[in-house]
Amino acid sequence: MTDSAGLEVNLVDDGNIPLDARISCQPGELLALVGPSGSGKSTILRTIAGLNKPRKGLIHCNGDTWLDTDKGVDVSTRQRRVGMVFQNYALFPHLSARDNIIEGLGHVAPAERSRRAEELLTLVHLSGLGMRKPAALSGGQQQRVAVARALARDPKVLLLDEPFSAVDQATRQRLYRELVELRQQFGMPMVLVTHDLDEAAMLADRLCILRHGRTLQSGQPFDVLAKPTNKQVARLVDQKNIFQGTIINHDEALGVTTISWGEFTLQAPHQPDFKIGKVIDWLIPASHVAVGDDENVVAGVIAGMVRLGDLVTISVTIKEASSHPLFMSLSVREAKQRDLKAGEIISVSLIGDGIHLMEP
Amino acid sequence: MNWMALELSLKLAAWTTVLLLPIGILAGRFLAWRTFRGKIFIEAGLALPLVLPPTVLGFYMLVAFSAGSPFGQFYESLVGRSLAFSFDGLVVASVIFNLPFAIQPMQRAFEGISTEVREAAACCGLSRARILWRIELPLAWPGILSALVLTFAHTIGEFGIVLMVGGNIPGETQTIAIAIYDRVQIFDNASAGLMSVVLLLISMVAISATYLSASFVGRRHD
Lengths: 360, 222
Prior knowledge:
heterodimer; A: alpha+beta; Rossmann fold; CATH 2.40.50.100; 2 domains; 5-stranded antiparallel beta sheet; B: 222 residues; mainly alpha; MetI-like fold; 11 helices; 0% strand; globular
């Protein structure tokens, strides 16, 4: 494992925040650790930086061993060459933006430091503001100083701990774009901790879903969000339509797996790993539920309608199949055109492409 | 005006302050960031001089300094003179008596530095010495300064413990506070008044300096 470039982390701890985590991140890759508060995502990041000591663990980065509890290896934070952006940036309040960056340039010859600091300031769009103290900078500017300071170290891994949580929405969008730009210029592994799924899906190459310190699933954002391995992950990635069904048939030629759901039968994409007769969990994203009778038609009663911005979320009770309602999203316009009202009977189509089967 | 006593007081205050600077930084920093069993008792012990009558503390120190005690014997064998009724003894007593005045403000100042800032310094790869010099000391400076000024002013004004440990030997242990008492005893109110005014001014200047520097440093980060 020491030969591999990139970051390999394997941690076990039964302390206050229990850990049983295994993550890896390739050079140039951005891995997002996602999970609710208390899921251990920040703890993992802090452990990579050496700020948290797990009971058992292995951390290899770019060929170096930073932690190997079995062999008694534990490289100190200051020797790990990590670039860390803290949630509240943790800038040195008494030093100017430029001097904050210079503190990260200890490995550069003293005569070069000023020039390098100016380069980094330009890189994060702060040239001309280098003499300002952190308190005289906006939240977004402070975040940029923190990123520049982290990069100053010429780090082997860049660690970002909820770096967008302390700024307003408009600034956040701009900082997202800047991070994407920066990624093109740096090739080290990057680990982003966030509780915002949309943010993670937008920025990361891979997501890793965590709960109670355990890594539940990792993969490309689309796969994790639309194809969670089980109900637990599905709930964490905010899937609302999770139900139980039974496998009835696989038809390889048509590329279809048929399942029963209460009194209904539904056709899903071919997923032959599940044996016929097996009870499984399945999900369908709210975006794949439509009004009408095109395919996989089920009928129910509209239980409630909630408008959020341009979308209306409708819950439909299908008492022949489930005690939980089925959720669907429509545009406000479509809901008006169809004159949908609570209490009415409605036919909905479950678009087969979106049906995903999971181990119970 | 007893210039000799004033000079002695200033000398005593300067030595006490200089010795308590490193002690206060080390102890304050340690107590600010470490948790261990019995910490509360150590903190209570360090705060004891705040509530203990100076005569009581002075009495125990006089006993400890005497030629009969192991500490007194050790010092005498080392330096060749006794701690009791000497300037050296005054300095030792004064350092101990001023521990809370030095350590507590410094401890609060170090506690005020956020953990994340210290962690960020480590992530920047700074050595311990550089973290102390570049990050911790500048951020804790207002607290350190006010600790030093408090210690200095408090030492100049100290009476009970000086009288107990040092007695009233002109040029050796007679500080300005003792000299004032001495003058009043022989109804020389004019001298006592003059020396009191000098003491009042020094205290006033010292306290004002701390408040000024605190507000200056407070603005510095904006």
